[in-house]
Amino acid sequence: MDYIQNVIETERIKTAYYRAGEGNKQKLLVLHGNISSSVFFMPLVPYLEKKYDIVVPDLRCFGNSEAKPIDARRGYRDWSDDIYALCKALGWKKFNLLGWSMGGDIAMQFVVDHGDMVKKLVLVAPGSPYGFGGTKDEKGTPHYPIGLGSGGGTANPMLTVAGQMKNDFIVKDVLNKYLFKAPFRMSKEWEERFIDAASSMKLGAEYYPGGFQMSWKWPYVVAGDTGILNTMSPKYGNLNAFLDVDPKPPVLWIRGDDDQIVSDHSMMELGNLGRIGMVPGWPGERIYPPQPMVKQTRYFLEQYKEKGGVYIELEIPGGHVCILESPIHFISALDAFVSK
Fold this sequence. Notes:
This protein has 340 residues and is of the alpha/beta class. The chain has a single domain, classed as Rossmann fold. It has eleven helices and twelve strands. The chain has helices spanning 45-48, 77-90, 102-114, 157-165, 168-179, 188-198, 228-231, 270-275, 293-306, 322-325, 327-339, and strands at 6-9, 14-20, 26-31, 52-57, 95-100, 118-124, 203-204, 208-209, 212-214, 221-223, 251-256, 311-316. The strands form three sheets. It has an eight-stranded mixed beta sheet, with helices on both faces. The protein has a two-stranded parallel sheet with strand order 7-8. Strand 5 (95-100), helix 3 and strand 6 form a beta-alpha-beta unit. Helix 2 packs across helix 3 and helix 5 crosses helix 6 (188-198). The protein is globular, with a radius of gyration of 19 Å.
């Protein structure tokens, strides 16, 4: 089924979004991840619209939403503020919130900023709450200087070049190699739509991947102050404030059993890439171990629980987009969680 994408003028940006199931009692706002757009959730909408009034926007710099610069010094707040403006424009005051990958981190920031609006929170393969790259243990202890090995200088060069050259073959290879668990493949039609979505992101120092600085310490790059990847640096993307929100929405954390991106051995994180010999000069496990992203999220949510929150961890078959690989697992878990 084809859905028509709407564009709404908010007080911050022009936001493109899909909406389906309007009139259903339960509202569900869905946030996509990095190098993607709302299109990545569209295969699930025909099932979700049966129970939910669902809105899936394109985030700033992605898809068909307006591309304005990202101030990484604000962490995920540029997107959180955009989503709040969208909710105001739509008249949404209370809803369930789902974030996938980077969208999960944005969702946690939204709870920090507007927790009274969120009934329940679903995190699908979220990035570590301590940032992507640049930390070395389950407590999220940063390397020194803070931001070392994270941010704009850590981008997959193949993706950046592919975006600049509009090379769909490279984008397809990266998507299938890292987003899904082999041998799973989306249909050719959806694969092409995903490639178009990934290629739609805005490129540049203020967009993707963002700026960076150099360091004398391995891996020689430090997060800059602008652009998408720098928002995820431990320098700016730390989400510890989430632990003290009040009220605390219940959390459902869903992850794939073979995620290549958000993992304790991520194929996008320099500590692990150095360990397996893909980035030369690795100084060893003691100095620069792989970032244990899953352990970090579990440690973080255990603290949330100790402070009075509730969370459920669910592992389902699949990779970074496990909800497309195991849709029945995902939808049944979502329905059970929201209906409680």
